[in-house]
Design a protein that fits this description.
Blueprint: E1 6-14, E2 17-25, E3 31-36, H1 46-57, E4 60-65, H2 70-79, H3 86-101, E5 111-116, H4 118-129, E6 135-139, E7 157-162, H5 166-176, E8 183-188, H6 200-215
Parallel strand pairs: 3-4, 3-5, 5-6, 6-7, 7-8
Antiparallel strand pairs: 1-2, 2-4
Helix pairs in contact: 1-6, 3-4
Length: 225
């Protein structure tokens, strides 16, 4: 696709609002992974950036996106008013997908989503609204919050949870029963919700890379746009 690596700060429209993102396109990218952060996190989430770097080395382009505007984020820090506004977050994942489908360096690439915490629900809404998505990976996510969208997801979905994060394991198990797509639950032993334990995030990185490599075919037809 191109001969070098492209790193760019981008702005993505959602109606009258603008969302900030960081776009990284490695040479000969085989696909695009759109990150949906949750629970007050932004594109600067250290854990998601570490996952993004591993995907970049695996020749996947990544778009790390702020799902809240700066003004919304200032309110959310004080009140948590927006982090559980799943329809808003999901709509913005769709807006980012449509922006990518029109981008000259991305529009021919298959795409998928990586969602964390409440961002997992937003990612699954994106996959439901844009059914040509190739794959979805959730880290410590709340897929249950995607509601009726779960049954409309076609993309193979990997739900990664910590073995010691028992409430979230149960919520993920519940979500799988509402999904018709290929779905797997991967439990990282002894890990808690943030995967802070030694080696836990590395397992997440490996699982995510393997999933996207398995399902993201670089030659896909019918791209939305």
């Amino acid at each position: 696709m191109q001969h070098g690596t492209v790193v760019d700060a981008v702005r993505i429209p959602d109606g009258s609002e603008w969302l900030d993102g960081d776009l990284h396109i490695p040479a000969d990218a085989r696909g695009l992974v759109i990150f949906a952060h949750g629970s007050g996190s932004s594109r600067f989430s250290s854990r998601n950036r570490q996952v993004s770097e591993v995907l970049n080395r695996g020749q996947f382009a990544t778009l790390l996106l702020d799902l809240l505007t700066p003004a919304e984020e200032r309110v959310d820090v004080r009140t948590a008013a927006y982090r559980f506004d799943i329809p808003r977050l999901g709509r913005r994942v769709v807006a980012a997908t449509d922006w990518a489908s029109a981008h000259s360096m991305l529009r021919e690439l298959p795409f998928g989503y990586f969602g964390a915490s409440t961002g997992a629900a937003a990612a699954l809404i994106g996959a439901a609204e844009r059914p040509n998505a190739a794959a979805v990976v959730s880290r410590g996510g709340r897929p249950d919050l995607a509601g009726d969208a779960l049954a409309r997801v076609h993309a193979p979905t990997l739900l990664i949870v910590g073995g010691d994060d028992e409430p979230v394991i149960e919520l993920n198990q519940t979500a799988t029963r509402h999904m018709r797509a290929t779905v797997e639950l991967a439990v990282v032993p002894y890990a808690t919700h943030l995967f802070e334990e030694c080696g836990a995030l590395e397992q997440v990185q490996r699982l995510a890379l393997d999933w996207f490599m398995r399902y993201m075919n670089p030659v896909r037809e019918g791209r939305h746009g």
